[in-house]
Structures
1.
Amino acid sequence: MSRIAARFAALVSEGRGALIPFVEAFDPDRETSMALLAGMASAGADLIEIGVPFTDPMADGPTIQAAGKRALAAGAKLGRILDMVREFRRADATTPIILMGYLNPILAYGPPRFCADAAGAGVDGLIIVDLPSEEADLIAADAARHGLDIIRLVAPTTDDARLPKVLAGSSGFIYYVSITGITGTRTASEAQLAAAVPRIRRVSPLPIAVGFGVRSPEQAATASRVADGAVVASALIETLAGDLDAEGRARPGTVGKVLAQVRALADAVRAG
Amino acid sequence: MNTPASSIGANSLRSGPDARGRFGAYGGRFVAETLMPLVLAVEEAYRDARADPAFQAELDAYLANYVGRPSPLWFAQRLTERLGGAKIYLKRDELNHTGAHKINSCMGQILLARRMGKTRIIAETGAGQHGVATATVCALFGLPCTVYMGATDVERQKPNVFRMKLLGAEVRAVRSGAATLKDAMNEAMRDWVANVADTYYLIGTVAGPHPYPMMVRDFQSVIGEEAKLQMMQAEGRLPDAAVAAIGGGSNAMGLFHPFLDDAAVRLIGVEAAGHGLETHAHAASLSRGRPGVLHGNMTYLLQDEDGQIEEAHSISAGLDYPGVGPEHAWLHDIGRVEYVAVTDDEALAAFQLLTRTEGIIPALEPAHALAQVAKLAPTLPRDSIILANLCGRGDKDIFTVAEHLGVSL
């Protein structure tokens, strides 16, 4: 069983959903993002998403755009991000790691080699924002060969006729983009989530994580209760960005502040 | 005016794209799932419109009576004499309403948006020509319009910014990245994803997710269709070469497409070499880029070894883009179109040459095509013919040109 499947199965027996925090690799530098990655599981993360910076993040709002810019300036490269995962795996063999980003850096790396190296480093799944199901054959076979889940995005605009097509060949879990918009802007209501989630469940048995607009512990609790998991990204990056000094460097307490926020989110998710 | 798709055979170079929106390996629909249903809806609506004679008749009427088509074909006699070789003809798309070829596609797309029941229009713009053309058709039909424009371009294209505002458009300056066309396109896509219900994204070039490269090409092909007829009337034969500037590549695609199956006609696309291809300050994605995915399509891109997109540079804001339309990428690979590049300085020289010899002030974009014509014409016999696309007028560029000539206005 993959790490992702094992983790969701364990959560089912615990009777709760997953908290999936997001960390942008190399934001604002490797050391800080590595410390966040290393500390998230013990702060209560059930799965972790690592953001792979791209110069043109078309689905992202200002917060993640700025994070990506800081990360690229700090030398983020796909190979170096896989090194971070390798380092993480030496201490943590079970927490699933999902890379989230855009297609072009993977194309530049070469999909066959990338899938081999990512799986070898301990990555479990990929979320490629600008790779809709229509184009997924570009990487699907390589990913499958190396046991990497391609996590499909479903949006409010994905209608019932389209859903089966989008979810054909998906694995791991389903990422429900809960709003029409970019990251870190609007938030879906509980009623909207309660209407959307059963629509997806009718088509796929995979767990559903809710992302885009999940910010507070209460929202994370709601999303993980209505669905199977909550992804929190921009709210954590805002904490990090707000704590950087005038030169854009992390302060001694920065990592602790972000991890405390992860802990608060995790507590809310655990309380349901 | 467009050749019906049904009359184009499978062996034609004009039959693309395929059902996945691919020209060879290029094109496709690389957008987030939120946008995918919208992109498919545009495709379906366009397919219906394309097959509807009433849609084409309505478009033709607007092109004739509002845009001012057909645009003339002008024999540039003094330029021909000056260069001392091939006869040079100019397709005068700078005489269209709003002063550039961009209105051809805006007219078609605004009619499509209305047909789809959309009530708000967004667009990206580089030089501001597409923004002005979009703002113009929105004023014509009373639709609210938001134009995204890089802050750098807002600064260097002030007259067009003011024009858009006069026309009632909201111009949003984009400050991310190098604050040019690429960044404006990112921001327009972010707007679209947040306003899916009522908004139509009116893309200005032959790039973006399928069906945009095909659709914009079809609407721009009126340039080449007219030019073909006009060449036959003027000379009784087709030109030996057709030359056009390439940023995203819409004016070039519009000129070239009707000639693709005429193997005797050399087709030459001119990219912006900026400060020189040997520097990193250029916008020559075909000459110096490699394939990748940006803005919804697979195509040649200026990118580093890690797949991060590099900033383009050109004196011409309309060519200052690190990608190119996917059909150009395919035509490059199969060798049907020759792609060359000319520098900022060469374009400036050609700008002045045309102004002095023909009394026509070209935009800096077609000045790149003219610079290539100036290189090519003297190498060809006097009975040969070059057709160049004069896709925009230069009024918007006089401040940029003055600065480079050391003149303060």
2.
Amino acid sequence: MIITSTAKKYAHALYDIAQKRKQAEQMLAELDSFSAAMEKDADLRNLLVMPNSKEKMQLLEDALKKLFSDLFVEFALLLVDNNRIKLLPQICDEFHSHYDFMHSRVRATVITAVPLTSEVEAKLKSQLEKQFHAELRIDNVVDPSIMGGFVVKVNGQVLDASVLGKFKKLKIYLTQN
Amino acid sequence: MEVKAKEISTIIKKELEKYQLETNFEEVGEIIQVGDGIAHVYGLENVMANELVEFPHGVFGMALNLEDDNVGCVLFGSEKNLKEGDVVKRTGKIMQVPVGEALTGRVVNPLGQPLDGKGPIKTDHYSPIERKAPGVVARQPVKEPLQTGIKAIDSMIPIGRGQRELIIGDRQIGKTTIAIDAILNQKGQGVHCIYVAIGQKGSTIRKVVKTLEDHGAMEYTTVVMSNANDPAPFTYIAPYSGAAMGEYYRDNGMHALVIYDDLSKHAWAYRQVSLLLRRPPGREAYPGDIFYLHSRLLERAAKLSDELGGGSLTALPIVETQAGDFSAYIPTNVISITDGQIYLEPNLFYGGVRPAINVGLSVSRVGGNAQIKAMKQVAGKLRLELAQYRELEAFSKFSSELDKSTQAQLTRGERMVEILKQNQNETLLVEKQIAFIFLGTQGFLDEIPVGEIRRLEAEYYQFLEAKYPQILTTIAEKKAMDDELQAELKSAAQEFISVFAV
């Protein structure tokens, strides 16, 4: 997902406050659940982006207060008030990566043709942890189109060890020389 | 032709045996937006300014704008197959081109890829296209001449090795011709030439290459070309590539001459790229750093100090003016950067004075030190006499009513103008130029009808070569005129004029 600089600023600000109040983990969970709800529920999305009025804010505040912490409610209302609520999925993503960065954790996406077995995953994890000197979390994405092998994406870096990638490189080698 | 499937498969097998696969972590980003030869890329967090990046389908680009949340890249290739979301890879290399002797005689594009069908360029030397110009300590004043073989230039607007001399004038009045003549005259002088065609018509470039080939000048010349239909980024980097190629010779104690034809088109290309990258426009919509664009390019022309090998890079930038307006933005910029200018005038050109150099407006600020002494001795009076002639020219219609001395000045001036005329691609050795200008400044031609002077010139060279070749060789060797030599040249001239049949 492309994260704009505005989303980054909101996410970092939220992290700073949450960290001070020792609510960062809670914020993670709340952001996740709210952005998942936004994605699923078209009615909620419509309500959030419709023109602001006192009644709407009051309604939202009452509804959110029952489910979320005070900090999150304030934050969500601020976003609605500033017409930035559309950025929430981005903010959520950026919050995650910023949280990981601050706790020297790295998220790695591993694309494979068939689901990873736990044995292979552990091996890959230890190897990657050595390389990046950080605690690693692996998200496994299954994509049969790569045919075999795997593709690892970490922090904007890519290791393409898939059969498809090898074929592509071979094609360039054979046609250019 | 019969194609054997087995043969093909053996070739492929051989290739495959050589093939080694390397898998490394690569830094990537993805295209947010692409169009007009520009791509905005998300990601590529650690990309450097001017770094080469790789797009899919073998298209390369250069990172120009490093912004908060995206990287603005220019594309060196077709954007046809690129789309949003495509993966862009870092190469970790700053934009560079092949340099060195392997490039002589070749026609290449601004990326250094051959366009002449003579096979790949085999060189181990690469150089970044943007390099820092040599500092003050690394330089020394211009002191050796760079003979262009054009009488009007070598006598009055001398160019030295390491100088930057602007050629400026309207379209179609011989700017490129002067530059090409300068290249032709470097044959056997140990000067490597680079002709950079910036956004030129394909037919024009073809003609230039043909002229160079016909005169055997491709043996020491490289042509860097960006066509008018190439994307603007090619045109933008073309002069920098040419400069990088010339710098190789400069830094290795050799001499090089690079011609940028022309910098107004370069400025247009940079304006296009800048506006598309959303940099703010300034005067005439050029970006704010348009002056720096040309000054950092032309500063790379230099004469290096003896400790660094004494190599030189001479630059002859060309700027096209619109309807003689050389006080426009780009011309004034480049005039202020260079060490002088050769100003070509349409009136002179259509009046038959070719090369159409306006001697009054043309100057060479540093070349005087580089002129050989003999030329200084004979041509010293030339500029003055021409200036006086220009002042009196308006009165030439009433010449019969003027006093004797004015009339004498007018006759002398008319002949001086005639002396400086010269045909395209007919460059002259400096000793011949000196001998002929000597005729004019000493008044030997005053009695000759103006219409006969061109014929006289040709016959005079034949006469000298046949009867007094030692005079020419002495001038070439001594590079100065002593009394003895002057007397010798005078008597030879007298003998020639007496036998010359009008």
